[in-house]
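Quick one: co-fold with 3'-deoxythymidine-5'-monophosphate.
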Amino acid sequence: MRGILNCFEGLDRTGKSTQVQLTKEFIENQLLKPTVVIRLPDRTTPIGQQINSFLQGTSNLSIELSHLLFSANRWELKDKIEKLISQGVNVILDRYSYSGIAYSMARGLEYQWCSAPENGLPKPDIIFYLTANDQEKLFQRGEFGNEIFEVPELQRKVKQMYENNLIEDDWIVINALENIEFVQTEIRKKITIVINNFD
Ligand code: 2DT
Ligand code: MG
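Sure, here it is.
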């Protein structure tokens, strides 16, 4: 039986990485299935290091070039993701192609241009989207502003791009202003159904 490909998307400071970690622990400890987390950008590869210094503001990249590096960083992981899934390991992606498209569109690029390099990457079986109706509350959270994209004006556009161009009926929309346990309970209900359907 193959593993599922699960991805977490959303705005900055919505607690994605916390939920990803809790979800991994749930699948492994409660559903007893092996699970691997892959965080994108993967800042450990040479391309990822370039992305990291760009996000921290210590180097400059054009919008187009940064977009292509984020995408290349996913292509670096394609074989690994496909191999894990084929071996029956569940993969949880902490951001994926939709971040690539939403953030780059918010920075002014066209949908077609942004989505073309994503064609051919593995398709997720389930997508969680963490968002907030009152986005201003996210800007008040600790550490907001650490990286170059964490500015309110861009974040407002990112939300619009996700919600006007990317979100599909089968995405699971999560209100990130709820507490961690409540959010995790919602995620557990959904993921259990999807994983059981694959058995
Ligand atoms: P984290 O804060 O989750 O590490 O993300 N981003 C991410 C893009 O602009 N394009 C992409 O393809 C990806 C994966 C979102 C760092 C920032 O990088 C943005 C926030
Ligand atoms: Mg961040």
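If it helps, Residues 12, 40-41, 55, 70, 95, 99-100, 103, 149 surround 3'-deoxythymidine-5'-monophosphate (ligand 1) (CB under 6 Å).
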